[in-house]
Amino acid sequence: MLIGIVGKANVGKSTFFKAATLAEVEIAPYPFTTIKANEGVGFVKTICPETEFKIKCKPNHGFCLEGFRFIPVKLLDVAGLVPGAHLGKGLGNKFLDDLRQADALIHIIDASGTTNEEGKPTQGYDPCKDIKFLEDEIDKWFYNIIGEKWKMLIRKIKSEAKPIKLLAEQFSGLKINEEMIKKTIINLNLSERFSEWTDEQLLVFVKQLRRSSKPLIIAANKIDLPGAKENYAKLRADFPNYIIIPCSAESELALREAARDNLIKYISGEKNFKIKSENLNEKQKKALEFIKEKILIRFIEGTGIQTCLNHAIFSLLNHIVVYPVENETHLCDKDHNVLPDAHLLPKGSTALDLAFAVHTDIGKDFIAAIDARSHMRLAKDHELKDNDIIRIMTR
Fold this sequence. Notes:
Layout: E1 2-6, H1 13-21, E2 38-47, H2 50-53, E3 63-65, E4 68-77, H3 92-98, E5 104-110, H4 128-158, H5 163-170, H6 178-187, H7 199-213, E6 216-221, H8 228-238, E7 244-246, H9 249-260, E8 264-265, E9 274-275, H10 282-296, H11 305-316, E10 319-325, E11 343-346, H12 351-358, H13 360-364, E12 366-371, E13 377-378, E14 388-394
Parallel strand pairs: 1-4, 1-5, 5-6, 6-7, 10-14
Antiparallel strand pairs: 2-4, 3-4, 8-9, 10-11, 12-13, 12-14
Helix pairs in contact: 1-9, 4-7, 6-7
């Protein structure tokens, strides 16, 4: 699973990325600091079953802090976008090509309005413009990719028994599947005779397909700066159907680095921290107090970074967490590691889907599954629930 961190230059994308991953990336107040996409690992946060069963888990991947399980997801911080990127302006071609394999996007905007469309310092800029222009650029990029092949596809499709399958195969590199195409055609009431579509219908189809294959969430960054609160209210009013999260990437980065250096005790996504070290200087104390008063206390999402990651996986992509174990009584694997693995699966996944997610051979040899809570035997088509703990039986 891959989450793309996108936006124009100088809005705090790389700071957001570093705060989410603690990766070493270049951060500077000028356009195109990020030339090559930065890859890293962030974490979604959920309540670990260890609290329910009063045991201590031992994750193979990710980690657990005070009953919160942090599950790894791949993040990609790409070069800043400028208007006209789909035509190759700025680093547009590179930016867009990096997004081909993204499952969802987090669009970072400067909620304070102090960065213009080219990523340069300004005052009074309307951040609502950024939402419109970024989506427009990605839609046009999609249209260019599909439009280049459309006439050729129409010729092939006329003699094809399964036209939707053929279309999905052509665009699988964009993570577009048959189900997305079918739903888009139905929702837009389009004919399955693609040759009858007008250019306008094709454009509408592409835009809807982009929303299905690359859904996005808005991170209203720099929320602590003057003017940001008012702009955030305007963003919510103008885009009521979007998930828009107030964020302070710099605050999250400061808190996570302080926690890493054992100066404070802080869990990402929480609304408080505890000072652990007496070695804090006055500047550090003032900075931490500012973050507490201006960010953590004021906003229900805290710094917003963890909220964005969670919404991307659990709301946009509609995934659940499932824990496979080999011993349903002790909730462990063969080496007695408790709750060692946490899998992110699409909602609606079955016991058999989990088996294949664990390993192809386990899926092939699937007999049944056992629910660790009820100890009931489950068939392969049993739909899993969030936070299920499952033993898979094989022949």
